[in-house]
Amino acid sequence: MTGTYRSILIEEMRKRQRKNPAYSMRAFARDIGVSASRLSELLNSKVGLSDSRATIVADRLQLKGKEKAFFIDLVQAEHARSKLAKKAASERVKAYLLDAKKISDEDFHLISDWQNLAVLELVDIPGTPHSFSAIAKKLGISVAEAEATVARLIKVGLLKEVGGRWVVSDSDSTTTADVPSTAIQNYHRQMLERASRSLRVDPVETRDLSSVVFSLDSTQLAYAKERIREFRRVLSQELAGMPSKDKVYSLAIQLFELKGDEA
Questions:
Q1: Tens digit of pLDDT for each residue in 45-89?
Q2: Which of 18, 53, 72, 137 is the most buried (most CB within 10 A)?
Q3: What is the pTM of this model?
Q4: What separation, in Å, do the N-terminal and C-terminal C-alpha atoms of the chain show?
């Protein structure tokens, strides 16, 4: 689920560019009814959209029903002239996001081990043999673990068997955000452990583990977290749409207050 109307525009432009490498920002601007310079300023947060222009853009994108209302609400939540209108639009956005399909914490307890989400990605790679032994070899787990993983994913409805192959039944599910969960904590702990393993054993050219230390206004932490989520969504969708996928990767971005154990 995207977090801003700008990310919706970026995702749509990227999708069209993947289908047609010659498709330009100028062409996208023409198709949504704005000038190229205006679109550039819009995507760089230098200008915004009015309600009427948001409706035109939504129509040009062929958004219907709830998707169209969500796009317009995202615009109003940022640019409405009155505080009351902004607040009302923000509440509608939150309600829409809460209604979006999510994996329940109960189900996530069943799939919180790292290999479960890795299998979901792996079986979706063209040319991947759909056998327990192939999965085990590719992910470096035992055949028994591969069998148990597939069984769990089928049990919670994220994987189904069609014509002797496993098919991902829901590629857009997410977990709850900013809500404490033992299952989610366990998942992130395992991903950090896998990152530590990669740091020890993988050649530097096959990985990218980096960090930066900087100061910020702590009241802007929510904004920073949303920008990270937006970046993560846009990048993963862009890379997932490219052809010739052959391996499963994990993108982990950590942002936390830097302090010692005695703090």
A1: 889 999 899 999 999 999 988 889 999 999 999 999 888 999 899
A2: 72
A3: 0.50
A4: 36
**Share of residues in the chain with pLDDT > 70 (%):** 85
Work out the average pLDDT over 84-105.
76
How long, in residues, is the chain?
263
Whether residue 77 contacts residue 6, with contact meaning beta carbons closer than 8 Å, is answered with no
User: How far does Cα 217 stand from its chain's mean position?
Assistant: 26
DSSP state of 169: S
Taking only Cα atoms into account, the Rg of the chain, rounded to an integer number of angstroms, comes to 21
What pairs with residue 102 in β-bridges? 174
User: Are the C-beta atoms of residues 42 and 65 closer than 8 Å to each other?
Assistant: no
**Is the backbone of residue 118 left (phi > 0), alpha (psi -120 to 50) or beta?**
alpha
Quick one: tokens of 132? Answer: 């327990």
The span from the CA of 252 to the CA of 192, in Å, is: 8
Strand pairing class (159-162; 165-168):
antiparallel
Q: From the CB of residue 95, how many other CB atoms can be counted at a distance below 10 Å?
A: 11
